[in-house]
Structures are given as C-alpha cells and as structure tokens.
Design brief:
With 614 residues, the protein is of the alpha/beta class. Bound molecules: 6-O-phosphono-beta-D-glucopyranose (BG6).
Amino acid sequence: MCGIFGYSGSKNASQLILEGLKRLEYRGYDSWGIALQDQKSKIKDQKLIAEKHVGAIGDVNSDFRLSSVDSYVGIGHTRWATHGGISETNAHPHFSTDKSFCLAQNGIAENYQKLKKDLQKKGYKFKSETDTEVIVRLIEDKLASRVDSGVVRGFVGTPQNDKSNSLKEAVRSAFLELEGRNTVIVLTDDGQIIAARNGSPLVVGLGKREVFFSSDTLSFAPFVSDVIVVENGQMVTWNGKLDLLDIKSNKSLPANPEKINFKSSKVDKEGYDHFMLKEIHESPYVISQVINQDQSSLDDFVKVLKKAQRVYTLSMGTAGVAASQIAFYLRNYAQINAVGLIAAEALDYYEMFSNQDMIITPSQSGETADVLEVLEVAVKKNVKIASFVNMPGSTMTRVSDYKFMANAGPEICVMSTKVFTSQIAFGYLIAKMAQGKGEEGVRNLQSLALEMQKYLDSGSNHEQIKQLAKELSKKKDVFLLGKYQNFNIVKEGMIKMIEGSYIHAHGIPAGDLKHYAITLMEKGVPVIVVISEDIAKDDVLNAVNQVKARGATVIGVSPSPYPGFDYHIPVPDTGETSAIANIIPLQLLAYYMAVELGHNVDKPRNIAKSVTVK
Ligand code: BG6
C-alpha cells in the first residue's frame, strides 16, 4: 500500500504536499515523489516538474529542490513497493510520454502484465518495472484512440475543455480496464486533478478556495473540516470546480461533504524519543476512551450481539490478534459462540455466513484490504458488521452496521501498541456488558488504567526492561509461552518483537510446547512466560519446569515470581483485565530491543502501518 496526496489552492503546493506525505509515511516509505504544475516553467509545453527520492522523507528540506518552484497545484506519493524494486525510476508519479500528465497509484493493477504486452505491441515504451506506468500508457492509448477516431483533435492546439474532457474520459475508460483494488490520482499540465477509486482509500478535503486529496483524513486534518469520502467506483475531477461521477455510467453524483472532527490530530513526539514510546504511554488514556464510548450505541449493539447465531471477530496482524482476544472475552464471560479469524484465512467460512451472524472487526486504519474483502462478502450475505476503528471516515466505518471509534488519537508508529490495547479493552467491555455486568467491566477497566499509569510512571520498570532488552537483542530466537487469557498476549508480544527487532520470536500455547517446540529447548534459549492468577497458572508453571529442565533461560511476566524464573518482570494483578496489563511490558521490551539494535523504531523495515493491498 502507499500514500497519495494532492493539493490545489492558493498556498505553496510543494511544502503542503511534502507535509502531507510525511503524515502518510505510515503507509509506506520505500520511496517518494512530488509533481507540480510549474507556473513559471521555461520549457515550452512542459509545465509539469517532479522530484523523486528513494527512502523515507526524513529531513529532506535541505535538498528539496521543488520548494523553490512557484506552484499552487500538485500531487505526491509515498511508496511501499509491490511491483518493481525500490528505485527512483519506479518511484511515483509516473509521466506520460509527452509529459502532459502524470499519475500516482495506490493498489495493484492485477492484470498489468497483459495490459503491458498489448501496449508494447502498439509500440509503447516503458522505463520502470511498475504496474503504475502501465496505467499511464493505457491512458495515453485511450487518448490516442480518441484522437484517431476524430473524437478530439490532437492535443496540440486542442481547446482546453476538449483536452481536459478527453483526458478525463481517457482516465475513466482506462480505470475501468484495471483489475484489482486501485486508486489513482492524475495531475495534468493545465492544473487539473483527476482521481479514481476502486479499493484503496481516497478522501477529498475541502478548504477555503483550496482542495486536498489523500489516502486518509488525518494527513490534511489541520486545514479542513469538510471531507468527501470517495466510494469505490467513483471518480473526482478538480479544475477550479469539483465534480464527482460514477465511473461506470459517467453520470455526475452529488458530492455530500461530511464534517469530520479530528480529536487531537497533533502529530508530534511530545518529548519522547519515538512515537512508539509515546503511544505506549497513552495506554491509560485509550482505556478511558473505551470507557467513554456512547452508552446507548453500546447497549443497542450488545443486544444484537447476544442474539447472533455465530460471531466472527476478524482482522490482520496485530489487530488480528486483538480480534482473537475479543472472541476469547466473548466466550469466556458471555458464553457467546465467537471465533477469532485472520481475515485472509476466512475463505472457508464464506459459505457459512448468514444473516443471523455478526462480524466484529477491530482496525487502526479501517482500510485493511484483506478485511474489506471479507466485509464485501459479508454485506452480500447480510451479516451484521460491527467495527472498532481509529481512523475517522475510513471504509470499514462506512460498511458497518455498528461503528465504534477508538478515539485513541493518531497512532504514528507502524507497530501498533495503544490501539491494540484499546481494541482488547473494548472486547472485554462488550463481553462484560453481554454478561450483564457492564458496570463491573467499566470499574475493572478504570482500575486497570490506574495500574497501567503507575506501571508506566515507574522508572525502575523501564530500567529493568531495558536491561533485559540488552540481553535478548543478542539472541537469534526468543520463545513466548502463554495460555487461556494470555495466549493472544504472547502472540502479540511475538509480533512486536519480530516487527521491531527482526529477531525470530515465537509465541506458543503453553500446552503445545511439549508436542513440538520443546525440541528447541537447550541451554540459554530465552523463554518468556506470561502468567496471571487464573485457572491456567499451574499449567504454565508446568511448562516452566519443562523448559528449565532443558536449560532454557526463563523470563517470567507475572504478579509474583515463581521457582524456575531466571528473571522476573512484575506486573500488576488486575484480575479479569490482567491480560491487558500484561501486554505493556511486552510492548516496552520490543521497543527497547529495537532501540538497542539501532533500528528505525517508528518505521521498521519492509512493513507499513496500513496494508491496503492483498
Ligand atoms: C499491519 C500493521 O500492517 O496491519 C499492524 O503493522 C495492523 O499493526 C495490521 O494491526 C492491520 O491493520 P489495521 O489498520 O486494520 O489495524
């Protein structure tokens, strides 16, 4: 997935687009590029100018050449490579042969090889390995066929409105030929912006005499309050006036701007070394945001939840683990028939979906492609959908029957921490409400937030975990054991450690250890065991003995130490919410290991915050 951004108005486009891309870098940061309409271009018939760089934007201001260009309209793109390596040639935007327009894309044109072959037969040349350039050539080909067929004269000397109409029509018909989930944005040399969506997100921000295009609302939050969320199969054009149209029928549609309120869209580290550490410290805050959900919407939702025949909780990555923990709470406290799924692994459930079922999906971005694919099937089967999302105006909120906002504030670090904590706290709350003990659930979460605050405020806790991180960051493999309420917690601890340290961590159900992983236990192998004062405690202590007997080094995350621990990380015993408390030291451990290893903590290699491609 990638981030796309566009601007047209009365301000310096290059700086605005650069700042917008910086706020979108969580979507990918392999390379980036900006193209502008240069008001003072000295090259005849070449009004568009671009600059591209490999790597993240970082503090490029020093050598950002475009900042001196006099321009009020442009587009930008930050890339997470899908087709074609990481290089300046493959960076977007990609230009038409005659440089009259350029294009940036978010998504995958799944039929690009066939399209490329047909275009090459017609003599079109390609410089990059991307599917994006194929889309550009396809638009050129549509234009040429319109000129050949006499629909419009050639570009040179063509009256402006013919030219912009024919390009709009060429973009529209080319876009219809693309297979897969894509969003494209086009900048023309006469300053028109055209954007089309089928899959990857696209939102338009309306300011005073200026307009923003982006992959998310947060990236232009400081400048607008009215937003148009472009739906799949829609296209927007801007040439001083905004038009919204249905791509298939080419019919104009009413653009219904929505007010989007941005809670604390301030995006800075506020004194912490990294966003990740800041966001872990916001965990108590996000718990209070869960408690402050609108009570009547929760009551309505829980009533329907309890009647569901089957409940599928699903998402991907860290949110996928949160989904499983939500299912655990629903089963454990309310005996609801809930199963946690990895969305991309839900194919065998499609035939089982019925209008008696419910899907609950937690998601930071609300745009994860694998989840949206399942929701598209679920909508057709009239499955009730509930989403718990952190991005206002995102796609998941638009297809949900019940939508809850985490209101966790921006989560900038690619590694999800506070939003994961928020998601499982929400799961606990709705389970307690379904159990008829909502008040108790709220009280338990309130005391959890206090305990978390105390834990995070204790310098000795951080110091202890920092020391442990120094040791573990030297290891090649780290194992984590948990059971019952803590199994998903060790899975999430595994994900955090892999994402931040690039070390092979392995979260294992404690009971399964003796069936395979025990063969890997030998002197010095680090095993983190997460134990709460619950019905699973003794089983996990058995597993401690089994690994100790084979020389492993045991790190216990538990309220009190037990024989066999080589290290003990004390965590507060918060009763039913203990699992939520237990994730904090594991998030801190992953953080300090990434710092110890000198990795880019907020932007680890190869991954991105929001995966809007399959
Ligand atoms: C991954 C992120 O790419 O996508 C995870 O690294 C996230 O943190 C997962 O949980 C799902 O994304 P989202 O936006 O649906 O939570």
